[in-house]
Amino acid sequence: MIDLMPTDAKSKLREIRIIKVFIIFVFVLSLLILYIEYHDHAHISWKFIFIASTCAIYDFDLNQKIKELKVKIKSD
Questions:
Q1: Is the pTM of this model over 0.90?
Q2: Under 8 Å CB-to-CB from 37, ≥6 apart: which residues?
Q3: Which of 12, 21, 31, 55 is 20 to 30 A away from residue 66, measured at CA?
Q4: Are 13 and 73 in contact (CB under 8 A)?
Q5: CB-based burial label for 30 (10 Å; 0-12, 13-18, 19+)
Q6: Distance CA 22, CA 69 (A)
C-alpha cells in the first residue's frame, strides 16, 4: 500500500515546497486577474484580493514550517 502522508522530515519538507509553489502560482494568477480586470473594467474584484492575501498569509506560515523542518533535519 502507498503511504500518502510523509513520515520523515525530508519528505515533509518536499511536500511543503510543492504546496508553496502552488500557493505562489495562485497568488501570481490572482494578481494577474486583478490587473486585467482593472484595466478592462476599471473595477477591482474583492474576491481576488482576498485570495491573494490568503495566499500571502499561508505562504508566510509555510516559510515558518520550512525553517522548523530545516532545524529538525540538521539536528538529526
A1: no
A2: 43, 44, 45, 48
A3: 31
A4: yes
A5: buried
A6: 19
